[in-house]
Design goal:
InterPro entries: CxC1. It comes from Pisolithus tinctorius Marx 270. By secondary structure, the chain is of the alpha+beta class. Helices cover about 50% and strands about 15% of the residues.
Length: about 160
Amino acid sequence: NAHKKMRQWQQWSSETIPSLIKPFLTYQWLSRNFWHHIDYEQPECSYFIACFPLYLDIWLVPGLQMVDLAVCPCAPAALQLLQMGYFPSAPLGPTLAVSLQLLSLVRQVFMHMPPNISAWCESLEAYLASMGYKVDTKEGICQRFSNAYHWYCILEISVNEYV
């Protein structure tokens, strides 16, 4: 497990985050700082590595939905998700993607109060449950949301350094 976490950390820091800086700035500018939704068309590649289901947390229309992504070397999952307005919980095979709007809000909230990811995730799960959505994993969304939030913050820091 420690070896897997180390590989994932290396993937995030050496490949995924650097590759997302310019697309993130582009999406942020086109969406007017996440205010508007940007239409996304999946790439048409002839070489697919994998397709997998993905739970998306949709901020303006709260809920969870499954999405199939066609992942290939020219269109990694993280890049496709970013271009759709979401951030992945893992660099290569994410099982949760979180709205950039929601992550931006959480980051602002945590700048003005002590961060508490567990309480935030429990509140989000309770909110989704009240709307009829059920998170189907025994650990809930806390670990995956925490991972997405952490690397989103690293991306924001990297963008600020880039600019």
